[in-house]
Amino acid sequence: MATFDRGKQRLFLSLAIVGVVILVVNLGLLAGTDVPSRIKQISIPYKDKSGQDTPPDPNLPKLPSWHHDNSDTFEELASINDQHPISELMKKGDEAWNQYEDSRSMTFKETVRKYRKTYGRHPPPGFREWYKFARERNVHNVDDFTQIMDDLRPFWGVEPAEIRSLAAHMHEVDADGVSGLHIRDGKVWKLSNSGWRIETMSKMVQPFVSTLPDMDIAMNRLDQPRVVVPWDEMQRLLAAEETTRRVAPGALAEWSTNMTGFWKNKDPAPTLTDAGWFRAPGSQYMNIAKEGCPPESHARDGNSSVESAEATYKIQQGGFVTNFNLSSDLCTIGPEIQDKHGFLYASSSIVASKRLLPIFGECKVNVNNDILFPANMYYKDDDRYEYDSKFDYKWDDKHDSMIWRGVTSGGTNTVETYKNMHRHRLVLLSNGTVMADQKFRIMTQNTNQPGAYNNYDNFGPGEFALKHTDVGFTEAASCVPDCHFYDDVFAFKNITTLSEQFESKFVVDVDGHSFSGRWHAFLQSRSLGIKATIFREWHDSRLFAWRHFVPLDNRYDELYSILTYFIGLGKPGEPNKPYVQRHSFEGRKLGRQGSEWASKVLRKEDIEIYMYRLLLEYARLIDDNRDMIGYSGDGSELDKYDAKKPMSVANGGHA
Ligand SMILES: *[C@@H]1O[C@H](CO)[C@@H](O)[C@H](O)[C@H]1NC(C)=O
Ligand SMILES: *[C@@H]1O[C@H](CO)[C@@H](O)[C@H](O)[C@H]1NC(C)=O
Ligand SMILES: *[C@@H]1O[C@H](CO)[C@@H](O)[C@H](O)[C@H]1NC(C)=O
Ligand SMILES: *[C@@H]1O[C@H](CO)[C@@H](O)[C@H](O)[C@H]1NC(C)=O
Ligand SMILES: *[C@@H]1O[C@H](CO)[C@@H](O)[C@H](O)[C@H]1NC(C)=O
Name one GO molecular function term (predicted). Predict the structure, then answer.
């Protein structure tokens, strides 16, 4: 203790302040109030370097950040008004999330009212039981199931008997890549064309299957999504749906019990329609995808350009993604990334259809019409994908680096194609040797105006990559004719367990053959997830970019702009060299928010709640009587399940 230097003292002082703040925030949490509203109102006494009181940040207690350079001395930064675009993006992320929090229904009454207003129908039969189930499992947002409604909407334009028939029979030809789950008399009666995926789905439905009517579920057992209905046909189906909306008084909250056309072992009912599968592995997926796009979109009009696509989802400053949803809209950006993602030009298995098929899938691109359900990998206990806190150290004890491990999947690897596959591009981009003579755009702090930043186009990331990235393949796979062409290209790394990866502050997540099963665990960790994907999943609407994770363009062109922001770069005042202040506080905050949020909305219970709701809505769609049934009550009978209203600070939110 005698050799305690000034820098360390200051660090400890800072840590003490952090501790007090965390304590205050936690006390508030225990009191059960809503987090964002409460934090907004806590005033934190805070003095900057000159001893001046500064007003607290409206959103979060702003802590003094400190600079950590390699000589192990700590230098507090002057508290400047940081105008980096990322602080603005984080503020917007917070606002979007606050709005989401504030709009939640708290009572059954409110929930059914909102349902009818939003979808123009009664909730389906069984909705009361579902609501109880969800509340008992502490559902966080009881309204946020719009993905289900969007996925199922077009099926209102198809006869129930036709949906039942397709669902019953699609599993029958093994090569079509479909498994079947058959529910009879409140039990999973049978699985057909079985495998680990459908076995996992079968476990997922166990907690509520006893309340479900008979149904057949057809599940995609391939990695890649399946259905793209052409635009005009989709518009017809959606219009048909609108004509069926009604909120009739006296609807019966009961399922029909005399329906036919389910799958039977013997004496199967005839198939009413052909699924229309065609095979197209390795071909340009945009040829299939663009048919699902609006005629005036870039994917169809041939007028695509990087600039026009970028304008929809990212900013020039630093190249940061402002709209994560649109960053994977293939109708806009598809033509620009069709040669940069393995699924889009080198997929290993595509069995597709242009017909609207009731096929349940784990992921899809924006123009697919598969019905999303929570991916089996998120539910199955698999060490490779499950969060384990062992190496998930406190933020400040983690390495200042970005890690990624995986195999060379994503499509068929050949010597001609590999350089443009999405995983391979990431590995090459993070390789300091390969990057030695490359230039990238990052942002640099304006020397004359501290806190202001400009684009800087000549950043050579070689040295930075060597120091701050740890990205590599563990194994070569899917190569044609064999993997020897990788001998001088990649150094294969030892397997690093998922938990060991959390020794790094930044965990980057990119697609494989399809979505990445690591994502829930990455969010659960205190490390900060950086995410690029072209795929949609069940959880998308509950995850907020720049609040719970950092979005990354599928071309990765702003990767170094992101990393230098969080890690910092250079020293102030060095001529002709970029300087970026270190933003460790922001990184820690995002990592923590992601982790806290994942423990509320990505639990196994959340998967069950989603699946239950999905199967209720699906059950109504396949019911011959679907226009007449539904829950028509006012919701007052479930008052005791009302969620607790957030307490206001004035009522004693904090001590
Ligand atoms: C099922 O029952 C309903 C109501 O009793 C009846 O209208 C309908 O025709 C029946 N359907 C079949 C296939 O028997
Ligand atoms: C493509 O762009 C050109 C020039 O801006 C425009 O005249 C043309 O109408 C566009 N084509 C389509 C199909 O929108
Ligand atoms: C990085 O690139 C160099 C040069 O191409 C190569 O020798 C090395 O194996 C690569 N490293 C990794 C981790 O792939
Ligand atoms: C990889 O594992 C092997 C065998 O356990 C070990 O000898 C080697 O040192 C490890 N390499 C690295 C880079 O950790
Ligand atoms: C993404 O954008 C589409 C089209 O604008 C919209 O329908 C959908 O709800 C959005 N999804 C999310 C998760 O925000």
Answer: transferase activity
